[in-house]
């Protein structure tokens, strides 16, 4: 699947790995944006974002968008990772990815539909529960969980926290492994003092932890790589009319989208880093 997706072999492989389709998926090879169904590319096992049972917040948002478009929702499933965009949007097997960072050159971005940040997670009764920056001297000599290769790693190194940090894998098969859940379990047990995760992931799993947790967006750490990101829908380049149509839908359903995100524990922030509270 590392070969160009225009080859027959690559296309067949892309179809073969997409759970829930099979030979019938070949009918979409030459398609453009469908006017009959809302076709979404998604990972079948990647909570809190998506799964085949429709339990993720991107599943719920896809349902909102489909309802607004008055189209039935249809998924093309493929595990996220290298080649995901090339073998989904790139082969026209679907028309949108529900979550993609703004500015990503591999897709055409819609307007952002939420903004979030990496977060620090501690037990509610921890003396670190009110820490709001990785530069806080109280973190010295503490054991911090960190996902290897993510932006917070730069700050952990810069502030001299790496020596005692516990790394967790960035790329895993989510069907069998969940570094975020392991990190939360380690915090609960006291094996580590705090953990740093991408907000939607950390916020979601903190709500399911065995002990009460505090989730604090790290918006004060600004003298290094960005810690907050705008998230958009990803579409194909050249499909401007489709992008504008999705922008209109995002605008119309923004408060409903916010409600979904907050219900999943996602810390959503405005452009001034203030928490957003959906209207009733």
Automatic annotation (TrEMBL):
Hey, what's the signal peptide range on this chain? 1-26
Does the entry feature the keyword NADP, yes or no?
no
The answer to whether keyword Acyltransferase applies is no
Task: Supply the InterPro entries for this chain.
Answer: Quinoprotein_dehydrogenase, Solute-binding_3/MltF_N
All copies of the Solute-binding protein family 3/N-terminal domain together span 37-263
Q: A Pfam family this protein belongs to?
A: SBP_bac_3
Record keywords: Signal
Tell me which domain of life the UniProt entry assigns to the organism this sequence originates from: Bacteria
Protein name in UniProt: Substrate-binding domain-containing protein
This protein's species is Methyloraptor flagellatus
């Amino acid at each position: 699947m590392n070969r160009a997706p225009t080859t027959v072999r690559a296309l067949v492989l892309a179809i073969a790995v997409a759970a829930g389709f099979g030979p019938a998926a070949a009918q979409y090879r030459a398609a453009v944006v469908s006017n009959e169904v809302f076709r979404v590319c998604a990972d079948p096992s990647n909570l809190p974002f998506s799964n085949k049972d429709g339990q993720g917040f991107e599943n719920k948002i896809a349902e909102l968008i489909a309802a607004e478009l008055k189209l039935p929702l249809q998924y093309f499933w493929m595990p996220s990772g290298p080649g995901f965009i090339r073998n989904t949007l790139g082969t026209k097997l679907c028309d949108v990815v529900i979550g993609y960072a703004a500015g990503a050159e591999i897709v055409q971005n819609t307007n952002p539909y939420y903004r979030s940040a990496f977060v620090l997670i501690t037990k509610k009764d921890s003396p670190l529960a009110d820490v709001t920056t990785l530069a806080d001297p109280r973190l010295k000599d503490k054991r911090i969980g960190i996902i290897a290769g993510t932006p917070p790693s730069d700050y952990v190194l810069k502030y001299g926290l790496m020596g005692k940090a516990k790394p967790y894998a960035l790329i895993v098969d989510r069907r069998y492994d969940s570094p975020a859940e392991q990190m939360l379990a380690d915090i609960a047990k006291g094996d580590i003092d705090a953990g740093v995760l991408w907000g939607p992931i950390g916020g979601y799993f903190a709500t399911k932890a065995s002990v009460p947790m505090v989730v604090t967006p790290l918006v004060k750490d600004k003298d290094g790589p960005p810690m907050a990101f705008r998230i958009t829908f990803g579409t194909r380049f050249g499909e401007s009319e489709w992008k504008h149509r999705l922008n209109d839908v995002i605008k119309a359903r923004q408060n409903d989208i916010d409600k979904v995100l907050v219900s999943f524990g996602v810390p959503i922030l405005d452009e001034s880093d203030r928490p957003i509270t959906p209207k009733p």
